[in-house]
Amino acid sequence: MDKRKIANQKVKDRLFAALIEFAGSKDWSRLTVTELIEQSGVARASFYRNFKSVEELVDYGIQQIALQYHTGKPSPENGFYSREMMLYKFRFYKEYADLVLAFHRAKMATTLLDVITDCEIDARGDMPVNSIAKYELYYFSGAFYNMLLCWLESGMRESPEEMAEEFLRIADRGPSS
């Protein structure tokens, strides 16, 4: 990678880190470029060389999460709901807990759920619009997201292994009575 690309990547990373610092204290939809460049120490021209808006910076962050997720994801040979895949998901999101919680605190929960759903669609393939089976994918994504968020917010007391097992138990048999 040439020096200019490396420098641009550092600018993007600093801006994204500044965005995360605002999570929970300021709604990202009300965040200004001026606030971001002051927080990050990046020049205004550098911001606009890389992004057109704060929303584009948020999209960059989402793309980075998705890229990291797909880079390390095991092949789905054992199935998309296998123990191996579920364990990967809980380990991955534990590693990125601060980022997930930042999106949640910034009122970007729907965006994060969309990312999780898109990861499932990428893994399984999109379902035909007229197929009732498409709802399984959305059910799975929503259930996983809600369980994940509760686990992260409660401090991740259980291990990723325990969470994967519990998710699969609930998915297989339904919640305990």
UniProtKB/TrEMBL annotation:
Which residues does UniProt assign to DNA binding? 32-51
Write down the Gene3D superfamilies for this protein, in alphabetical order.
Tetracycline Repressor, domain 2 (1.10.357.10)
Lineage: superkingdom: Bacteria
Q: What is the lineage of its organism?
A: Bacteria, Bacillati, Bacillota, Clostridia, Lachnospirales
The record's annotation in PROSITE patterns points to:
HTH_TETR_2
Q: Which InterPro entries match?
A: Homeodomain-like_sf, HTH-type_Tx_Regulator, HTH_TetR, TetR_C_Firmicutes
Protein name as it appears in the record: Transcriptional regulator, TetR family
An example molecular function term from Gene Ontology annotations: DNA binding
Instruction: Provide the species name.
Output: Enterocloster lavalensis
**Which keywords are on file for this protein?**
DNA-binding
Question: What SUPFAM superfamilies does this protein's entry cite?
Answer: Homeodomain-like
Q: Which residues form the HTH tetR-type domain?
A: 9-69
